[in-house]
Write a structure and sequence with these properties.
- The protein is an alpha/beta fold and 291 residues long.
- It contains eleven helices and twelve strands.
- The strands form three sheets. An eight-stranded parallel beta sheet has the order 3-2-1-4-5-6-10-12, sandwiched between helices.
- Helix 2 links the parallel strand 2 and strand 3.
- Helix 1 crosses helix 7 and helix 3 crosses helix 4.
- The longest helix has 17 residues.
- The chain is globular.
- 41% of the residues are buried.
Length: 291
C-alpha cells in the first residue's frame, strides 16, 4: 500500500495512475472524499484527512510501504507563508511518529536557495523541515509546469497574442509536464535507497515564450505572437485577478527569479531526469477543452 496526497490534482493523479497501472495498492489521502470518487472506482482506497489534522494523517500514513507527499499550492500566501508552515509542521509531527520506510516529496526547481524565491520559498521550507527526518526521502524539483501555459490559450485563440511574464521572449527555460512529474515520482517510490535524494525533472527540451507561441499557433491553426508584459503592470494584474494587495509580492519575486536566472537547477549533488512529454503534447488536450 502506498499513500498518495494530492490525488485529485494533476501530479498526485499521475502518481496514483502509475502505481495502479503497475498493480500497486493506493491509499488516497484527500481533504474532500467526494472529489475522489473516480479513484475509488479505479481501486484506490480513499482516506479523508485535513492536511493539518495530525491524528488523521498519522492514521493515513500508518502501515504503508511508502508515500507521495505534497502541500497544497498557495499562490497568494500571507507574509512568511503561515499556511504552508502549518501543514509542513503537521507533516513533520506525523512522519516523525509513523516513519514510513520511504517518501517522495514534491518540491520545486530552485528550492536549494534560501532567499529570493517568492512562492518557491514554500518548497525550500518543506525541504529544510523534512529532510532531517530519519526516513529515506526523495525530493523532486520539477521545472516550470507546462500546464501553466493553459492561461494563455484563450488570449491566443481570441487575439493571436500571449502576454508573457517570462522574459526575454527568446530565452528557453526548463519546463515539464505534470504527467512526467507524477510518473517519475511513482517510479522513484518503487525503488529503494538510503538517506536523502534530490531529483531535478524537466521535459525533453526547453521552451521560450516564443516557442510557446509557435506551439499554440500550430494547435489553434492561427498565427500567435508572444509579447512581454511590463513588470510595472504585474501587481495591478494580480490584484485584478483577485489577489490581495499585500499578497502579490511572492508571485512577483518568483517571476523575477526565473527571469534573472536565479531560480535554476542545482549544479551539483542532484540527479537530473528528462521526461518524454513535449509542450505540444501537454497543451493539445487543454486546447481541445478550451476551444
Amino acid at each position: 500500500m502506498y499513500a498518495v496526497m494530492g490525488i485529485t490534482g494533476r501530479v498526485g493523479g499521475a502518481v496514483a495512475h502509475t502505481l495502479l497501472r503497475q498493480g500497486k495498492k493506493v491509499r488516497a489521502i484527500v481533504r474532500n472524499s467526494q472529489r475522489a470518487w473516480p479513484w475509488l472506482q479505479r481501486g484506490a482506497e480513499i482516506f479523508q484527512a485535513d492536511y493539518g489534522d495530525v491524528p488523521a494523517l498519522q492514521e493515513a500514513f500508518t502501515g504503508v510501504k511508502g508515500g507521495f507527499v505534497m502541500i497544497p499550492p498557495y499562490f497568494a500566501p500571507a507574509p512568511d507563508f503561515p499556511e504552508a508552515r502549518a501543514i509542513i509542521s503537521a507533516l513533520r509531527e506525523v512522519l516523525s511518529a509513523v516513519r514510513p520506510p520511504k517518501l517522495v516529496y514534491l518540491s520545486a526547481i530552485g528550492a536549494q536557495h534560501n532567499r529570493d524565491l517568492g512562492l518557491i520559498t514554500q518548497s525550500h521550507i518543506l525541504e529544510q523541515e523534512l529532510s532531517s527526518l530519519p526516513i529515506s526521502s526523495a525530493f523532486l524539483r520539477p521545472a516550470w509546469f507546462m500546464e501553466n501555459s493553459s492561461w494563455d490559450i484563450a488570449s491566443a485563440r481570441d487575439s493571436g497574442e500571449i502576454l508573457s511574464f517570462l522574459q526575454p521572449l527568446d530565452r528557453p527555460i526548463p519546463m515539464v509536464a505534470t504527467a512526467d512529474v507524477g510518473r517519475i515520482a511513482a517510479e522513484t517510490l518503487l525503488k529503494s535507497w538510503d538517506g536523502n535524494r534530490y531529483i531535478e525533472i524537466e521535459g525533453p527540451q526547453r521552451y521560450s515564450p516564443n516557442s510557446l507561441a509557435l506551439v499554440l499557433s500550430e494547435l489553434l491553426h492561427r498565427p500567435v505572437q508572444a509579447k512581454s508584459l511590463s513588470r510595472t503592470q504585474w501587481d495591478v494584474i494580480f490584484q485584478s485577478q483577485g489577489t490581495a494587495p499585500d499578497r502579490t509580492e511572492a508571485h512577483i519575486e518568483m517571476l523575477d527569479g526565473f527571469n534573472s536566472g536565479w531560480i535554476r537547477f542545482q549544479d551539483q549533488g542532484t540527479a537530473h531526469v528528462r521526461g518524454s512529454v513535449t509542450l505540444r503534447d501537454a497543451l493539445a488536450p487543454l486546447v481541445d477543452n478550451i476551444s
